[in-house]
Each structure stands twice: as structure tokens, then as C-alpha cells.
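Hi Y.,

Following your request, here is the sequence exactly as I used it, all 225 residues.
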Amino acid sequence: MTAPWPGTPPAPARGKWPEAGAPVAPPLTYLALGDSYTIGESVPEAGRWPVQLAAALRERGIGLAEPRIIATTGWTTDELSAAMDAAGPLGTWDVVSLLIGVNNQYRGRDLANYAEEFAALLDRAITLAHGRPDRVLVMSIPDWGTTPFGQASGRDTASIAAELDAFNATARAACEARGVAFVDITPASRAPGAGVADDGLHPDAAQYAAWAALALPVAAVLLGD
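Below is the corresponding structure, written out as C-alpha cells. Let me know if you'd prefer a different format.
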């Protein structure tokens, strides 16, 4: 193959060169809402699942910007809602993801309280996504009871699993009622060999990559791939 002339720009990875003077579409915007799982406790920024998901979508040719993340380790549903209030006007976004609830279960809050507060957060997420439920993506709560921290916690891991299953069923029902996509990552968190970070509790970057892979085909459809 003949080498390109010096200074020749590389060919585009996909598609054709834009026509001269054609406007360049701004990247799609992404807001990720959650807790430690969304902020990626104990992993580098590039290992966070929303960041990995955005990168994978760009590899598919979907022009998605880096996500804005509103999430902090330990947040419950009401604390996430309060943080969203404190963040000021959030405007609207092309896609919004939501993963919240593990700390509600961990602190022993009841299912009815979670159902009410999760539904309110879900409605807020839809509003932030230009009022489009088809641009919202909900991820299920992973099972922390399977981790070394969970195994050493002294709490009954079967009860943890059952409670999380009930929380996730509630979240799934709320999503189905509104036409919101629900991605079940809980089985991946329970799989033998699921990667755990050095803190013994949170996922490592490889497990987050598995979550992003599960979300990728769903997000691609939402964004019109």
C-alpha cells in the first residue's frame, strides 16, 4: 500500500467526509444520576461505567459527550434528590441514566419509602430528558452481599439478596409503567468471579465494563443507532 503524503489527514473511521461548509452537529449530552456505583468508588474516572458506556457508544459512531455525573458514595434516594436541587437548574439532556437504592436497603429503609422516592426521581429524570421516557435508562441495584465486605458483614446474605430483588422489582415496575428502559445488571454482580475493587465492596473497572456492555445495546437504541 502506498503511504499517504505527509500532512494528509487520516481517513474517517466510518462514514464519509462532511461536505464543505456542512454544520457539525454538537455531541449528544448525558447526565448520570446515582450513588457510589455511578461515581465509581475505588476506580479511576475512566473505569466508571457511565464513562465506559459513553466511550463504547462513540465507538459505534454515536457522538456522545462525556457524562455529567451527579452521584456520591452513600447517597439514598432522598439524598440524590436533594443534591439535584442543590446543583441548580440542570436543564435538559439527550439521555439520562439512574442507578439508586442500595443505600436505602443497606440502612434498612422500607420498600414503600423506596418505591415513592424512586418514582419521584424517575419522573425527574424523564423531565430532564426533554420529557422523553425513551431517553432514560435505569440500571438495577447490584448485590453487595456477594462481595467480601458483604460476606464479612455479619448480615444474612440471603436476606440481602431477597431485599434487593424486591427493590429491583419495584424499580422495574415503575419503569415499565412509564416506558423507561430497565437494564438488569444484578445477575452480573452475583456471577462467580465478578471483579471487586481493593475496598472489597465496590466493583472494579472490569465489572463496570460488564455493566456498560449490558447497557450498550439498550442505550444505542435509545439514541437511535
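The CA atoms of residues 1 and 70 lie 49 Å apart.

Thanks again,
Q.
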